[in-house]
Amino acid sequence: SKHHPRRPTKMPSLGISCVRYLVFFFNFLFAITGGIVVITGTLIQSYYYHYSNFVGESFWTAPIVLIVIGSIIFVVACFGCCGAAKESPCMIITFSIFLGVVFLVEIGIGVAGYYKHEQLSGILEKGFNKTLESYPNDKGAQEAWNLVQSEMQCCGINGPEDWEPIYKNDTVPRACCHRMPVGVNKCTREYASTEGCFSKLSNFLGSKSLILAGIGIGLAIVQLIAVLLACCLYGSFRRQYETV
């Protein structure tokens, strides 16, 4: 007797249904996490840009990549949902490839975030010393120091004494004084913040680097599970349409 191609069944097996719903579930998570990733990347990038005079441009790369990845996650999630709904092996394998690439990039972001965290102290020390030396004649350096001293409520690199070579008569920049007595108009070391800006900014940006690393690695683990599930679903669809 002749063999005829088996028609695809309209009612998928329980196993395929479970995997399909899991793929839908993970894509729903991706839609949410994609937005979170974009917001987180934007915030961290704004923090680094805010203090670009001290950290340099090298710190901008990872947050920008994170923003792009968050946007791509939405597109990848659409492929996964459509592939699962239409039982399309082609769309499912495309989804898996996209997700695999995103997985590798996010692992890279996590490693880069941790690596930058380890380098942060050296980069900040160099940036602080450079801008302090150019402070008298560089308006950009003056604005950067006024910004960090006002927002971090600190003074100098390690303390107000760092301004001694630049300011005379025990005075320091006005941004160093956050609580001056009524009637006092001159900011001196007596009224200046005693804590230096190096430790404060280092701790602040260091925590953001660790958040960046944690988000990258955390998402990568979730997406690795999704890739494995998508591959299972792809195999199930292929077997369902095999001829006998």
From TrEMBL:
Localization annotation: Membrane
Full protein name: Tetraspanin
Q: Say if the entry is tagged with keyword Secreted.
A: no
Database matches in SUPFAM superfamilies: Tetraspanin (SSF48652)
Q: Where are the transmembrane segments?
A: 21-44, 64-85, 92-115, 210-237
Query: CDD domains annotated for this entry?
Result: tetraspanin_LEL
Q: Which UniProt keywords apply?
A: Disulfide bond, Membrane, Transmembrane, Transmembrane helix
Q: Where is the signal peptide?
A: none
Q: Which GO terms describe its cellular component?
A: plasma membrane
Entry similarity comment: Belongs to the tetraspanin (TM4SF) family.
Its source organism is: Anopheles darlingi
What the entry lists under InterPro entries is as follows: Tetraspanin/Peripherin, Tetraspanin_animals, Tetraspanin_CS, Tetraspanin_EC2_sf
